[in-house]
Amino acid sequence: MKTGSWRILALPVSVLALAGCGLDPLGSSDGVSLTVSGGIAGVQRGIDVASDGEVRITGRRGTRSARALSDAERGTLDSLLDEVDFDELPDRVVSDRARDRFEYRLEHGGHTLVTDKSEDLGAADDLIEHLQDCLNDRL
Fold it and tell me: Tens of pLDDT along 19-31?
């Protein structure tokens, strides 16, 4: 296998790992998930927040349960989810000119957005930032 080819396998493996934990990694319920991948170092990490507030994170040590969202984190998450119009979001907003950027895969309610933050997506960007903060607090 060529160097870097493992990245192609990383996302399906992490999705299967989350599915095996009984969580819905595809966001078809009221839960929400964010997967961050790419960059020069080939980062792969993510957070999945179930509708009941249960949190699972994926990082260097694999997938594991993590501390539930605080009331403040949950309040912010709920507000941001209400602000984002998922039906109006494109599926993919990634610059063809950018290299070695992170890609953010946001999933909720059967909708998926993949972005590298090359364009302003308003409340969706705020939601990604909040989920990333929640993830970083738990890694």
Answer: 444 444 433 358 9
pLDDT tens per residue, range 66-82: 999 999 999 999 999 99
Q: How far apart are CA 20 and CA 97, in angstroms?
A: 36
Q: What is the DSSP letter of 133?
A: H
Contact, 58 vs 14, CB < 8 A? yes
What sign does the CA torsion over 112, 116, 121, 127 have? positive
Residue 105's nearest CA partner among 79, 71, 135 is 135
**Interval 82-119: pLDDT, tens:** 999 999 999 999 998 877 789 999 999 999 999 999 99
92-93 and 111-115 strand pairing? parallel
Q: Could you tell me which residues come within 8 angstroms of residue 91 by beta carbon, excluding any fewer than 6 positions away?
A: 112, 113, 114
How does DSSP classify residue 69? P
State the pTM of this model.
0.77
Alpha helices in the chain, H assignment, sequence order: 6-20, 71-83, 123-138
